[in-house]
Structure formats: C-alpha cells, structure tokens
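Subject: mismatched residue count in predicted assembly?

I count 420 residues in my input, but I want to confirm that the predicted structure covers every chain. Input:
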Amino acid sequence: MAIIVQKFGGTSVGSPQKIKAVADRVLRYKNEGHKVVVVLSAMSGETNRLTDLAFQMQARPDTREMDMLLSTGEQVTVALFSMAIKEAGHNAISFLGDQVKILTDSTHTKARIQSIDTEKIFKYLDEGCVVTVAGFQGVDGVGDITTLGRGGSDTTAVALAAAMKADVCEIFTDVEGVYTTDPNICAKARKIDRISYDEMLELASLGAKVLDIRSVAFAKRYNVPLHVRSTFTETEGTWVVEEDKIMEDVIVSGVTYNKNEARVTICGVPDQPGIAAKIFSPISDADINVDMIIQNQDTGAGLTDMTFTVMRIDYVRTMELLKGVAKEIGAKGIYGSDSITKISIVGVGMRNHSGIATTMFNVLANEGINISMISTSEIKISCVIAEKYTELAVRALHDAFVLEKPDLPSEAYELDNPKK
Ligand code: ADP
Ligand code: ASP
Ligand code: MG
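Triage response: the counts match. Full output below for your records.
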C-alpha cells in the first residue's frame, strides 16, 4: 500500500464528463489499496476567464482581491470531483488551502508555501476517504487567501507529497510526459523517460510549462519521486529523478521557448559607478523581476547601453519607470520590444562538451534569425530572438541536436523481424 499524490491539470478536469473519468481513474488506485490524495486545478480556461473579469474592474487589480477571485476556480473542481467519487459509492472529502492548512507568505498572486498541516488529511485517509485538495491556493498568517502563481497546482501537489512523505507524486496532464520540446509545436518531439531535477528546473524556468518550476524545486529539495504522465492514456510518462539515476548520455535534453518576456534598452547611459543601481532600484521597488541583463562596453564617449528583459506583463510599467530614470541620469533614450522570445537549449551533457553554443548560433544564422541577447549557464544556452521566428527556431534546433523520435520501423524491417 502506497501513499500517492495525484494532480490533474485544467484540461483533465475541463468538463463534468472529464471529472467523472478522473474519479474513475483515481478509484482504480484506491481499489488497489493505495491511499490517494488528489490535487486539482480549475477547469481549463477558468483562471484566464476570472483574470479577464478582474481587469474589467480595475486597470491594475488589487492583488488580495485577485486571490479571492482566482481561488474560486479550484473550489469548483474539488467539490464536483468529491461529488463524483461519492456518486460512485466511495467516501470523499474536499478541502481548500486554508482548511488543510497550506500556510504561505503574504505575497498575493505569487505566494510561497511555508508549511502544510497534514493531520487532517491523514485522518480522512485512514477513514477510507479520497481526499481532494484545491491546487494553487493557500492562506497567509492573517487568514487571507493567497495563490501561488500560474501553474501553481503542480507546486501544491509536490509540496503535499513532500509533507506527507508520499511514495510518489504523479502529475497528470494533456501530454504523455516531458518531451524534448513542446510536442504541440514540434511533431518530432520525443518523450523523455527520465530527466534530472536540475535539467527539469532549467526547462521549467525557460518556458516548458509542463511543470511549474517551484514544484521541481520542492521535488529536488525533498527528494520526491515525480512522475509526469497523461490523464488520457495508461502510458508510462517521464520520471524526474536525481542525475545519477539517468542512464542516457545526452548532451542536449531539450529545447524550450518563453514568449512571456519583453526586452528593454536604455541607451547613452553615463558609464559611472552607481548607474546600474539607479536604473534597477525603481524597477525592483515596483516588484518587477529582471531576467537577462547585458551592459555594453563603454563606446568611447564615456557612455554605455544597458539591455535587459522583464516579464511581458511588466513591459509598459517598466518603460514608464525607465522614462523617469533616463531623465534623472541623463541617458539618451529608451526603446524596447514586447514581441520577443527567449529560446534555450538545456542539457547536463553541455558541462563536458564544447562547441554547443557555436552550433546553436550557426543553426539560428542558417535560418536567417537574428540573436539580440545571449546568456549561458553550466547546462543551458539562451538566445533572445524575434517572436515570429519561435516555431522555426524550435524545430531547427531540435533537428540540429538530434532530439527527434527514433525512426519508426519500416515495412521491410517488420518483414525481416516479424516478432518486432
Ligand atoms: P496542465 O493544465 O495539466 O497543468 P499545462 O498546460 O500547464 O497542463 O502543461 C502542459 C503543456 O505544456 C502541454 O500541453 C505542452 O504544450 C506544454 N509543454 C511545453 N513544453 C513542454 C515539454 N518540453 N514537454 C511537454 N509539454 C510541454
Ligand atoms: N488554475 C491555475 C492556473 O491556471 C493553477 C494551475 O492550473 O496550476 O494557472
Ligand atoms: Mg500546468
């Protein structure tokens, strides 16, 4: 008998029929004698719908009220799911984040989990219930509802699995696992059987939204066995594991893209001590996260340019803030673009191989794609390109680094090997 945490994403619970199908699947595990805790997302499209409503009320919605609103999406699915389990003749109970309780800090819309009280969950599991917990939400120290940021139900599931010392955390979604690139934009994408926590952290941080990055960080920290798989098939998915458990020797494991960023340049900046602090302080004071930063060499006249990326939703605000800064420090001007993509290749094998970056630059050059920013770490290389080239770049890089599916057996092969 195992303790299993199973998380089902929005598309998996997108209709009453789908919720019933998930209930049947969960009950199969329960009938095998396992203790099952289920974490659910809101129905697909619901969090977007609620967000749109908020923007019809306020140009910059109040974050506390935003959390009050967004948390309702998951409340609907957990209640419906429990009803489906009961209808099938089993005991079930659903909980919201503050009932469990999932204690977070007070950073509304991007709160961090601090602790989870699992006593109630174990009590109901021992009574034979299927326990369902609303994903993506928690409660802060003063009793206000918080949410964890988009995709946060994965994090709820892994944090619960860690707190309960579960045997496995299964993330059920609309694809069969973690692929070498987004299978929805590259038909040649191949499912990866095993991937290390570190590679998965990079893939997630660079745009592979199949797992929320904080869920991977939790899994790594608490050594939670993580299995990403499809809600709609029985196929074995991808295991996220420690690096030494990976058998395959690959240099590049995946290609990712992130269309959520924008690029900003402040040019003709006096090249003096303290200037970077003057530029970035108002930005961080406004809770805007900066990702890549490039500062040019002094162009000769004691001036330099500074280019950086921010989340696309923060683009307009960043440009506004920079206008003020540019005036204050005597910079020549600002410009930017919110139609960029950060495209990356990731792989632990890059540590021991040279020439990977050059290959990446050549592949993009051969496609006529201009690179406007580059950043590297031990196991990844990222380039900023124009958004319109995203699909082309993903496919070209995927081909170049030979990540595609192994060839299907030809007819002749099948004839020669009738048993295969
Ligand atoms: P859920 O609603 O189940 O949480 P998400 O939409 O958050 O599902 O994540 C699944 C999606 O992630 C897939 O439909 C796929 O388009 C996208 N995706 C992006 N990169 C990858 C990748 N490398 N492997 C698998 N899926 C990926
Ligand atoms: N419903 C939330 C979202 O759409 C959380 C999640 O699905 O993980 O982002
Ligand atoms: Mg998700």
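The longest strand covers residues 261-270. Marking this ticket as 'not a bug'.
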